[in-house]
Each structure stands twice: as structure tokens, then as C-alpha cells.
Amino acid sequence: MSQRSVEALIGRLVTDRRLRRRFFEAPEQTCSSETYDVSEREMEALLGLGELEIEFLSQRLDASIVRAEASGPMTFWEEECTFSALSAALARNLREN
Fold this sequence. Notes:
By secondary structure, the chain is mostly helical. It has helices spanning 3-15, 17-25, 27-33, 40-49, 51-59, 76-96.
């Protein structure tokens, strides 16, 4: 996969909530269905970014650059899960560093 393709996939993961969920549930299937040709090494690197970190970045983007059909308001449950997961990830990172 070219650098340009990796960058495109990362951009989609940050701006498209539906794709992000599908990717972290079934990365190989998602890349295949979206025609991203990802090597094993690249897949490991992308998965290493972490769903929570990508979600954290996504939440800070202006709504005008996030896919409308994939953004929309979060449900209460999504907000609670995201907040709890981000809090846990932050605490884990603080303990590790």
C-alpha cells in the first residue's frame, strides 16, 4: 500500500464513525470491502493507533469536516461509553508514563 493510501485510510478513520467502528470490529474485512490494500505490517500499525485515540481526535474535529451521515449527535450510551473509555485510556497512559 502506498503512503497516500495509508493517509487516506487514516483520514477516513478519523472522519467517518461508521467506518471506524467497522474497522476496529473487523479490520481485514473492512479494508477489503473498502478496497484498501493493507499489508500485514501496515494493519498492525493502524490497529496500534487505537480506537480510543482515533475517537478522541475525531471528537475534536469541526463538524464541517466530519462525514454528516457518520457523525450526527451521539446517543447517551455512545457518549457514556466514549467518556468512560477515554478516561480509562488516559488513566492507563498516565500509569504507564
